[in-house]
Design goal:
There is one protein chain. The chain is α/β, with parallel strands linked by helices. It has a single domain, classed as Rossmann fold (3-Layer(aba) Sandwich), CATH 3.40.50.720. The protein has seven helices and seven strands, in the order βαβαβαβαβαβααβ. A seven-stranded parallel β-sheet has the order 3-2-1-4-5-6-7, with helices on both faces. α1 crosses α7, α3 runs parallel beside α4 and α4 packs parallel to α5. About 45% of the residues are buried.
């Protein structure tokens, strides 16, 4: 029987790379997006390309009832969930300490902390009945330090790091492992259209001088979800080109 993975935010960027990585390993893949049509179309392509079963679901991470509904639909269709990857995030770009509004702050926290927690809870309930499973949360190097205009995002990622430790502690007795990938210096579609000079400026900040790809993130996630990491829980793995090993220049716009 093929294992089953659910990846939130699995239709583009590193989320799609993660979905492809699990599909290559023979997992049946379920993905979510805010738009169900996008998720379903991506799932269809994955199923055709890799010869696995795949499903796409619309998901509002700010609504615990919607989260519970998606897990119920997944369980009805696939019977189990062996791995959960919490990849979706509200990036909270441009939200500064002096100007962020309560609504903006709550929006970031409701997705990145509350929403991810209730995804973990729904997955863990099913994993307990199965005798185990693996959960991987996508955090950020931003919780270790500061950049301009990301106060709510960085705060949410710090809360997620604490969540990982506590979930690993409480769920370990049920055979459920919970770990944390910290991307940094990652290339996404937000890089589209930037100049070669801007690319060079960004790369100059990082010891390795090159950004991570979605495939780099996917490889780290798959390792932590797989039996290769069967005794790894409560851990964090930075995939960041050395960002955490240095201090960035105190310049607006470093990222």
């Amino acid at each position: 029987m093929n294992k089953v993975v659910l990846i939130t935010g699995g239709v583009r960027n590193s989320g799609l790379s993660i979905a492809r990585r699990f599909a290559r390993e023979g997992y049946n893949v379920c993905i979510t997006s805010r738009k169900e049509r996008d998720a379903q179309e991506t799932a269809t392509r994955l199923a055709e390309e890799y010869g696995i079963r795949a499903a796409g679901y619309g998901l509002d991470l700010q609504d615990p009832k919607d989260i519970a509904s998606v897990f119920a639909r997944l369980e009805e269709a696939f019977g189990r969930v062996d791995a959960l990857v919490c990849n979706s995030a509200d990036l909270g770009i441009g939200q500064k300490a002096l100007t962020v509004t309560p609504e903006e702050f709550d929006g970031v926290m409701n997705v990145n902390v509350r929403g991810n927690f209730f995804c973990c809870q729904e997955a863990a309930k099913r994993m307990c009945r199965q005798g185990g499973g693996a959960i991987v949360l996508i955090g950020s190097v931003h919780y270790k330090g500061a950049v301009h205009g990301r106060i709510a995002y960085a705060t949410s990622k710090g809360a997620m790091a604490s969540m990982v430790h506590n979930l690993a502690f409480e769920l370990g007795e049920y055979g459920i492992r919970v770990n944390h990938v910290l991307p940094g210096a990652i290339r996404t579609d937000r890089w589209e259209g930037i100049s070669p000079e801007e690319e060079a400026r960004r790369r100059a900040n990082w010891p390795l001088g090159i950004e991570s790809t979605g495939e780099d993130i996917a490889n780290a996630v798959y390792f932590l979800a797989s039996d290769q990491a069967k005794t790894v829980t409560g851990a964090e793995l930075a995939v960041d080109s050395g960002v955490l090993a240095c201090l960035l220049n105190y310049k607006k716009g470093n990222e």
